[in-house]
TrEMBL record:
Coiled coil: none annotated. This is Integrase/recombinase XerC/integrase/recombinase XerD. The lineage of its organism: Archaea, Methanobacteriati, Methanobacteriota, Stenosarchaea group, Halobacteria. It comes from the Archaea. InterPro entries: DNA_brk_join_enz, Integrase-like_cat_sf, Integrase_catalytic, Tyrosine_recombinase_XerCD. GO terms for molecular function: DNA binding. GO terms for biological process: DNA integration; DNA recombination. It comes from Haloplanus aerogenes. Residues 14-220 form the Tyr recombinase domain. It holds the Pfam family Phage_integrase. Gene3D superfamilies: Intergrase catalytic core. Keywords: DNA integration, DNA recombination, DNA-binding, Plasmid.
Length: 220
């Protein structure tokens, strides 16, 4: 099982790179319109699922077809594929059922269903690669970065108390996790999509982790 780079695993640090919903949509458009035709729906589904659920790269690569509960519109995440807590909690992670497209903006089920109905390759894993039954974290990083570069998205950055803009090369899978938090905290339904909802969506063991990473998003 492959590991992620340090830039993708800074879960205890303040989120410093993120995308707006329009930028995520631009990446999805690029994914479905470019590259090898038989991989386009897969690539678009990967970007959509990352943006919708906040899955970590390594978690996404371990998803099986059976974990997508198509009839329920949910993704089942067993605890064994999730990142372990570093705060000493023995009961975390827990298995989760994640409702897909909670804010109705991404059409995640439509994307996944279309991909699976036309998938070029049978595999027990949800996302196979050209050569193997299971895509690697490196391949996911590459396709996310390629979509960002081809869409020419300049992510937003927060560094040393200042807001600015980055380069497409700064975008990696964990940026889509940050982008989910940004999107939810700027939804009109503030009563539902608050910091507690974001904590549960991202499956943090502690609310303090969510506040440390994303509290500044509420003032942007």
């Amino acid at each position: 099982m492959s590991t992620e780079t340090n830039s993708e695993t800074q879960s205890n640090e303040q989120a410093d790179v993120w995308l707006t919903p329009d930028q995520v949509d631009a990446m999805r458009d690029v994914a479905i319109d470019t590259g090898a035709k038989y991989l386009r729906q897969r690539n678009e589904a990967i970007i959509t699922l990352l943006a919708d659920t906040g899955l970590r790269n390594e978690e996404l690569t371990q998803l099986t077809v059976e974990m997508y509960l198509r009839d329920q519109g949910e993704l089942y995440l067993p605890k064994e594929i999730q990142k372990s807590s570093h705060n000493g909690r023995s009961d975390w992670p827990r298995s989760h059922h994640l409702e897909l497209d909670v804010d109705g903006t991404l059409g995640t089920q439509r994307s996944l269903n279309s991909y699976l109905d036309n998938r070029w390759k049978e595999s027990p894993y949800l996302f196979p690669s050209r050569q193997k039954e299971q895509i690697t974290t490196r391949s996911v990083r590459n396709l996310v970065k390629r979509a960002a570069v081809e869409a020419d998205v300049r992510p937003y950055k927060y560094e040393n108390g200042d807001f600015g803009r980055g380069d497409p090369q700064d975008v990696h899978p964990h940026v889509l996790r940050h982008s989910l938090a940004y999107r939810l905290l700027h939804e009109r339904d503030d009563d539902k999509f608050d910091i507690y909802f974001v904590r549960n969506r991202l499956r943090h063991a502690s609310l303090q982790t969510t506040l440390r990473e994303y509290d500044h998003f509420r003032t942007i």
